[in-house]
Design a protein that fits this description.
Layout: H1 6-24, H2 29-42, H3 53-60, H4 62-69, H5 71-74, H6 87-101, H7 118-132, H8 146-162, H9 164-170
Length: about 180
């Protein structure tokens, strides 16, 4: 879809994923779209701001969290190098929602080919979501090399310090005055 403005695109994402959430809960498509529209109207004053509607939806949908809050990584635009999301990514987001949001099970083994975005989805996106909502306070990072792990942590930190969508909805999540914040701690 082509959108005239980023705001229009973000409103579409919010409506689409709200509707999808209601459909997943058993509503018909028509009912889901009606409920989504009502929620958007009810929260019109704070759709994307601090603890707004997007914040609430991102807590229960990793897919929405990625497509909105991490859109520079997951949503193809002229200003980035993101590729189209595949069905495999959507299945992976659903599995991670079942595991982390719905707490349906505790262990998951993935065997996927190189380049399937396992690290981007399972390490980066999931870590950012879980830390943003305070669902996780520690993440153990392992990489093929120490440098791989350090780069992962730097990318995650950059999301909290520079991502305008996260800062707008969550506020400043990194407090270097009161906490140790470096590449190894």
């Amino acid at each position: 879809m082509n959108f005239k403005t980023e705001e229009e695109q973000n409103r579409y994402l919010l409506f689409y994923y709200l509707s999808k959430t209601f459909i997943d809960a058993g509503a018909t498509e028509e009912e889901a779209e009606q409920k989504a529209s009502e929620m958007i109207l009810k929260n019109a004053n704070n759709l994307f701001g601090y603890h707004g509607l997007a914040y609430s939806l991102g807590k229960i949908s990793l897919e929405f969290f990625c497509m909105y809050f991490l859109q520079n990584t997951f949503l193809p635009k002229e200003s980035n190098v993101a590729r189209e999301v595949s069905e495999v990514h959507k299945e992976l987001w659903k599995e991670l929602d079942d595991m982390f949001v719905n707490d349906s099970y505790d262990k998951l083994e993935l065997a996927m080919p190189r380049g399937a975005a396992k690290t981007t989805v399972c390490d980066f996106a999931l870590s950012v979501q879980q830390h943003a909502y305070g669902s996780s306070i520690y993440t153990l990072v392992c990489g093929r090399t120490e440098q791989d792990a350090v780069e992962f942590i730097a990318q995650t930190r950059q999301a909290f310090e520079e991502n305008q969508y996260i800062i707008k909805s969550f506020g400043n999540l990194i407090d270097t005055r009161n906490f140790t914040v470096n590449k190894l701690e």
